[in-house]
Amino acid sequence: MWVENVADLHSKQENFSEVNDTSSKAAMCHVFVAWMISVTLRRKGILSESSLSFTTITPNVPSNDIDFKEEALSDESKHTREKFIYHLQMASQYFFKAGRYELIPELSKSILPLFEHEGNYQQLLNTYDHIKKAYEKSSRRWVNVFWAPITGSRFSGMVLTRTTEPELTSLPVIVERLKKIHRNSARSLKIIQESSKLKWRNLDQNSDYIQVNAVKPRFPECKETESQFIMHHNIGTFELETPFCLSGKTHGSVDEQCIRITLFKTAQAFPYVKKRILIIEKEVIVLSPIQVSDGVILGGNRTDRVQSERYE
Fold first, then answer.
1. Cβ atoms of residues 240 and 261 within 8 Å
2. What sign results for the dihedral spanned by CA atoms 159, 161, 165, 167?
3. Which positions fall inside the DOCKER domain (predicted)?
């Protein structure tokens, strides 16, 4: 399966940290393979319909991607119970490396009944021990998410993507990495590190551009009281704040300061099997000086209290 090859590529990355985004993607690849196998096993009656709800792990499974659907129905001779267990165990190991400990007990719900049925007490012991270690863990770091719109003839028009990086990754490191990736394909690549809104038509048409900005997850105000894990898992909406003044300055006095909040919705939720995900919807909210002050005083999710203008 091609997704298994992607998992191998992620697992071979050597930039592991305490919580590693590459580990999350490798884990998600194994989750997708396990889901493909489960389609066959459930149809054959080997797995019960209630054995595992993959949507509790990620809303990206089952996927609407035709590649996944076709592969789930192909070469079913390789879709065995042993393979199913193997991929869930691999996913569990990578989620542990990624610091997503809360997913391990959920993944184990499908494995434990199979081991109990065959009387495999050693595997039961190993699985419960892995769950115990997951419950004992609590400290972890989360990844940074960067917004990287790219444009130019090399890129065939503007494409919006998101890329995730380990938490301690700085913006200059991202810039150097992008330059290295595109140095042989882009004619004259320019990296823009400012958050102000750019007018692409006014840029040099003989150059290619990538604008990079760090963004943060955005969720309903009620969710802000939940655990850090819930606030950093299966996130599909992000926000970028850009300060500006009507006079053209970036920063000004209290009675001048405005903020432009851009909300992005991605095609899939993070983490996913891919590092870059397409943005499918953008919404721009402009806060006036009084609304900016109101947000500072009241706190919370100030965008819920103002009118917004939506751009598709």
1. yes
2. positive
3. 1-312
**Domains of the chain, first to last:** 1-138 (1.25.40.410), 145-298 (no CATH)
pLDDT at residue 305 greater than cutoff 90 = no
Q: What is the edge-to-edge ordering of all strands in the sheet holding 150-151? A: 150-151, 208-211, 189-192
Cβ-contact 3, 270 below 8 angstroms = no
Mean pLDDT of the chain: 75
Would you call 58 helix, strand, or coil by DSSP? coil
Nearest Cα residue to 191 out of 243, 148, 155, 162: 148
Tell me which DSSP letter residue 102 carries. T
- Of 213, 230, 225, give the one whose Cα is nearest residue 300: 225
Are 238 and 264 in contact, with CB atoms under 8 Å apart? yes
pTM > 0.70: no
DSSP state letter for 146:
E
**Which residue stretches of 146-197 are H helix?**
171-182
pLDDT reported for residue 15: 36
Measured CA to CA, the distance from residue 144 to residue 157 in angstroms comes to 26
232 and 226 in contact (C-beta within 8 Å)?
no
Greater confidence (235 vs 52) lies with 235
Q: Which amino acid is at 219?
A: F
Q: What is the mean pLDDT of residues 82-109?
A: 90
Listed residue (197, 306, 175) closest to 243, CA to CA? 197
pLDDT of residue 304: 53
Average pLDDT over residues 261-282: 83
Amino acid identity, position 178: L
Q: Tell me if 20 sits within 8 A of 97, measured CB to CB.
A: yes
* Burial class of 286 by CB neighbour count within 10 A (0 to 12, 13 to 18, 19+): middle
User: What is the per-residue pLDDT for 133?
Assistant: 93
